[in-house]
Amino acid sequence: MKLAVLGLNHGYKFAQDSKQIAGVELVAVAGNDKLAKQRAELLGAPLFVDYRDLLETCELDGVIITLPNHLHEEAVRLCAEKGIHVLVEKPIAATVTDGEAMIRVARKHGIHLLVGHHRRFSSKVRKLKETLASGVIGNLVGINMMFTLAKDHAYFAENWRITKGGGPLLINAVHDIDTIRFMTGLTIERVYASSQNLIRKNEVEDTASILMETAEGPTINYFVSDGVPAPWSYELTTGENPKYARAKGDCYYFFGTKGSIAFPSFTVYTYDENQYGWDHPLQLKKMNVQDNDPMTAELLHFIDIVKSGVSPFVTGADALETLKVILAIKRSAEERRIVEI
């Protein structure tokens, strides 16, 4: 199976992992900066500065696209026209129009389109989904979420990350929104958001506070900031990516009629049936979950898709629903009003 990786920031891990999998050949990579050149040399893979030249030159079965968001539509279209299956990084696109176009062109040319919401492959995320469905905390009433950390200064050297189409809402919050949608099965139908650029003063937000209402009833409160020294984010608390220094704590809290649960510590709080209420101590227990590497699991799933034709676990249509929520949040913050989805 012949693979190529377009983009060597987030895509570097995919490229590294692919070289360790029997029956998979990393044919080439694409990137246009000094870091990409260094990483291509470490991988021992030909480097194309323009990914279009790579697609024209190489014979491929699958392509992993980790380019800036606004390039996703073009890259997927070029792959589809050549009959190449695609794993495209989240968000599916920068706009709903582009996302819809990607879904259409994949269908037209009969290729599989997998969207890289890799957290859906996490053993922790799947266990939380199973736990909520089991009724351990009763009926879900509400959720509190946080994405709070400080990215290094060099991260913002790439212009696309600090201009329209970038920012933590499209780059990071899209992960959290998709994770919550997957864990709970809730349909987010209305949002109100306030965003600021108090930290870096760039064109895009660096902080936002969001209230989400669902068709099923529970509400979701979400605070996001990528410029504050704090540990309460999925990346730092789960320890799933060795790139980040792991921190103790939780980033999601689920409140139910019978109890509450914190993620990723899987700390469950309930009352004894005969000692219910604030006059009595809460009963506390922790659940154990075996760790895994979600990105590697996602790559293995993509390989199965290409080799065996299995259906993508994260379809374009599903990823588009997550994008719609994020874009509604951005619109709400810009227009200072409630936005229906």
From TrEMBL:
Pfam families (alphabetical): GFO_IDH_MocA, GFO_IDH_MocA_C3
Tell me which residues make up the GFO/IDH/MocA-like oxidoreductase domain.
125-261
Can you provide one Gene Ontology molecular function annotated for this UniProt record? nucleotide binding
Highest rank taxon of the organism: Bacteria
Specify the Gfo/Idh/MocA-like oxidoreductase N-terminal domain's residue ranges: 2-117
SUPFAM superfamilies reported for this sequence:
Glyceraldehyde-3-phosphate dehydrogenase-like, C-terminal domain, NAD(P)-binding Rossmann-fold domains
Concerning InterPro entries, the annotation shows: Gfo/Idh/MocA-like_OxRdtase_N, Gfo/Idh/MocA_Oxidoreductases, GFO_IDH_MocA-like_dom, NAD(P)-bd_dom_sf
Q: Extract the PANTHER family matched here.
A: BILIVERDIN REDUCTASE A, BLR3664 PROTEIN
Q: What is this protein called?
A: Putative dehydrogenase
Question: Which source organism does the UniProt entry give?
Answer: Pseudogracilibacillus auburnensis
